[in-house]
Amino acid sequence: MSAGAGQAERIMRFIYALRSKGVTDPAVLRAMERIDRGAFVRGIFAERAYEDMPLPIACGQTISQPSVVALMTEALEVTPRDKVLEVGTGSGYQAAILSQLARRVYTVERHRRLVLEARAVFEALDLVNITALSADGSFGLPEQAPFDRIVVTAAAEDPPGPLLAQLREGGIMVVPVGQSDTVQSLIKVRRTASGYDYEELRPVRFVPLLEGMAQE
Ligand code: SAH
């Protein structure tokens, strides 16, 4: 990016890069245009917020690559009536994108510090339909279930059973599946009247879904 590029130009290039990676859904592109990724990245990496790459955040975690956020959001087929669960709040960026498309977003994270930081950003951006909670998301969020959509932003060996159970009939879950350090696949699960349909979308690389709460 050229030095001194204005914010409008930065966002235009950001959206152009997403389109070139295959993101086509106008509602998703609008959400990506409205939510400033720069608000979710701190310190020395902030200036790279509009590049299509994952970046480090606190607690040794990462904010996902924007094109992956957009493609996962597209795959979720979110409608304005939907109640969505995200597992793995991280920076809060994915939840913020979802908040533009869904009725209500619940996001859970095992690092309490990340939850506090994400809440502060949601408040600053006036994103009032997101609830961020500290919890081990492998158990989902039973008290708010069932969900119309579930997105997991950490890789599990298999789609976690409690999450499958908390998906409403007709609902969609998008989850990276695979061993933590090898190739993972993004899987789209659809709950039908008789069971679950699985579709493999693309290779991805996410941090592992870990058990239990983190220390901080
Ligand atoms: N969606 C995030 C990126 C998440 S990185 C964003 O938009 O920035 C994955 C996150 O999942 C990490 O913050 C990690 O701490 C969290 N995580 C891993 N296992 C978890 C679990 N069992 N429950 C909740 N969060 C978990």
Describe the structure.
This protein has 216 residues and is of the alpha/beta class. It has a single domain, classed as 3-Layer(aba) Sandwich (Rossmann fold), CATH 3.40.50. The chain is 27% helix and 25% strand. The protein contains six helices and nine strands, in the order H-H-E-E-H-E-H-E-H-E-E-H-E-E-E. Strands 5-4-3-6-7-8-9 form a seven-stranded mixed beta sheet. The protein is globular. The termini are far apart. The mean pLDDT is 95. The chain binds S-adenosyl-L-homocysteine (SAH). S-adenosyl-L-homocysteine binds next to strand 2, helix 4 and strand 4.
Strands, total number: 9
Largest sheet: 7 strands, mixed
Q: Determine the CATH topology.
A: Rossmann fold
Number of helices: 6
Number of domains: 1
Give the arrangement of secondary structure elements:
Blueprint: H1 7-20, H2 26-34, E1 55-56, E2 62-63, H3 66-76, E3 83-87, H4 93-99, E4 104-109, H5 112-124, E5 130-134, E6 147-152, H6 161-165, E7 167-177, E8 184-191, E9 196-204
Parallel strand pairs: 3-4, 3-6, 4-5, 6-7
Antiparallel strand pairs: 1-2, 7-8, 8-9
The site of S-adenosyl-L-homocysteine has 23 residues, from strand 2, helix 4 and strand 4.
